[in-house]
Amino acid sequence: SQQGEEDPQALSIQEGENATMNCSYKTSINNLQWYRQNSGRGLVHLILIRSNEREKHSGRLRVTLDTSKKSSSLLITASRAADTASYFCATGSGGSNYKLTFGKGTLLTVNP
Amino acid sequence: NAGVMQNPRHLVRRRGQEARLRCSPMKGHSHVYWYRQLPEEGLKFMVYLQKENIIDESGMPKERFSAEFPKEGPSILRIQQVVRGDSAAYFCASSPPTTAGTGSFNEQFFGPGTRLTVL
Fold it and tell me: Counting C-beta atoms within 10 Å of the first and last residue's C-beta, which end of chain B has fewer, N or C?
């Protein structure tokens, strides 16, 4: 399997519920990022967590990182229909971590 | 400040033709990255360029693909003699000049992508 694999592949919830997506990776990392991609659009950077951090918050987003298990989770609280999108985790390699490796993503559908 | 711009947004080519994809980075960004996204897949790194230099092309297929980022003008990803397997979305990202340190990170800002369809 590839670096940065998300699960589940698809998640369908009702508006107002929380959504949790997980990401596993294989090699050591300096940081891990989460991106959102709306259908047919480019990626939007959501949040970055460094390897020495365990949890990070940004608005309704909460990211955790467990380097011992090589996994991360993205929690979206109080979801909205506008959160419907694919969510990808990405790990960086190369100087300044420029070479991003993405998983296949989790397709989140938030039903109104 | 306009974001990363890519054109065309959609490109249709017949097998054997050439495809040219353009990317204009954000103002002040001197680093450009190209990624390819196959259907139902995540993005795959192709190449990293700075002005007039290819820094890392480890993700580029060895044949038919080339990229440039001239001193003036947009970055170009060129695919010669396209085949059906080249059908994908090609995304460009840009970032400002790099900061030092292995723990550093320069956020990459992505364009809307060019969707290439090879008939």
Answer: N
A50 shares contact with chain B (CB less than 8 Å): yes
pLDDT of residue B1: 55
Rounded to the nearest integer, the mean pLDDT of chain A is 89
Place of tokens 């107002």: A16
> In chain A, whose CA is at the least distance from the CA of B43?
A102
User: Which structure tokens are listed for B43?
Assistant: 């993005």
Encoding tokens for residue B39? Answer: 């259907």
> Residue A95 phi/psi, 5° resolution?
-55, 135
pLDDT in tens, A20-68: 999 998 888 888 999 999 987 888 989 999 889 999 999 999 999 999 9
| A99/A92 Cα distance (integer angstroms) | 5
Query: Residue by residue, what is the 3-state secondary structure of B8-36?
Result: CCEEEECCCCCEEEEEECCCCCCEEEEEE
Residues in chain B: 119
Q: Which stretches of chain B drop beneath a pLDDT of 50? A: 101-103
CB contact under 8 A, B105 and A31: yes
CB < 8 Å to A44, chain B: 110
